[in-house]
Amino acid sequence: MELKIDPYERCPCGSDKKYKFCCYQRAREEMHKKREELSHSDDRLNHMAQQRWEDADFEVCFGFDKEKCKPLIKGAHSIQNNRVLNRISKDGHLYHIGSKLTKSGPYPILKKISRNKASKFFGFCDYHDTEIFKPIELKDYSQEPIENYLFAFRSLTLEYHRKIRVLNQLRDNFKSFPSATLDPMSVNFYRTALLDFEDYSKDYNSFKKDYLDRNFNGLRTVYRKLDFEIGFATSSAFTVQYDYKGKQINDIYFDKSVDKMPSIYVNVYPIESGTNIIISYLVEDESVYKDYFDQLESLTNEELVSHLNFLIIEYTENVFFSPELVEAMTEKEEESLLRSFASSLDILEKFKLELEQNYFKFNLFTKSI
Length: 369
Known about the structure:
Elements: H1 24-30, H2 42-55, E1 73-77, H3 81-88, E2 93-102, E3 105-114, E4 120-125, H4 126-131, H5 134-137, H6 145-176, H7 184-212, E5 219-226, E6 232-238, E7 264-271, E8 274-282, H8 286-298, H9 301-315, E9 319-321, H10 323-328, H11 331-342, H12 347-355
Antiparallel strand pairs: 1-4, 2-3, 2-9, 5-8, 6-7, 6-9, 7-8
Helix pairs in contact: 6-7
């Protein structure tokens, strides 16, 4: 990937101007100046980072028939609040994996959060959040194509919203610190964010076409039901790098030449005396994921949950844990969970964990207490 901004491409700050006529000159003037932030305390840095993430939030409705949109964009739950989050919460609270920023970089922590705030994003107006998802909100899952579609669609829109928000945050950072446009790492983050946005835009358009055509057979889905309740829930979309046997199926870090990095859609949540596992991909991505899903279908439940134990922590942040699950973990298990999560972006951390024999040495799929 080109790790510098061309003078005549659109400025990464988000304006419609060419870079040469927007932030370029300010970037050169600022390049040798020391940023004031470097002298801030870790608490101040962390507060500033959280504030920038909040400032990058935005409201949109991903519903398709826009003429029916209502003005109010509600905080929609990507994981059902009353039927799922309420089931795993304690005193109205859950845990999720958050982060804390220091001068040496961010590190993950387990943070307590209200279930009413958990998994929320501003992605639907009141009308569409209510009407679109009725088939999965008002009755138990029964493997109907429309249900598979809606679970996957909600996972997609959550991640699509997040990709746009990341892009917003990067653009705001370039506005505040133009010299970042001359930093190869910052430019790499920006170009990756643009590609992520384009990928999810393409998937969204595929879902839109199927919805408007009332075609809910555009997904392949693997479903399993466990005979016990778990203490966590997740809904997410992400690109899988390796299949079950360790063969690379997507070069997510270096291959920028493909038309799209295809996603799978994963929903795992407890129900009365059981757990639903719903994993899907768009059939237009058959050439990438067919063999992988053939592998998943051949797995025993024990093998599948072991694989999901890895996938969920490796690829998603939208996972919420019951306080009982977190509090039952040993200190070493909790450390393994957080460091394994961080290792998805830090190969050296992965090597350290493997040497310590503590890489993914925890089990999310324990019976709910």
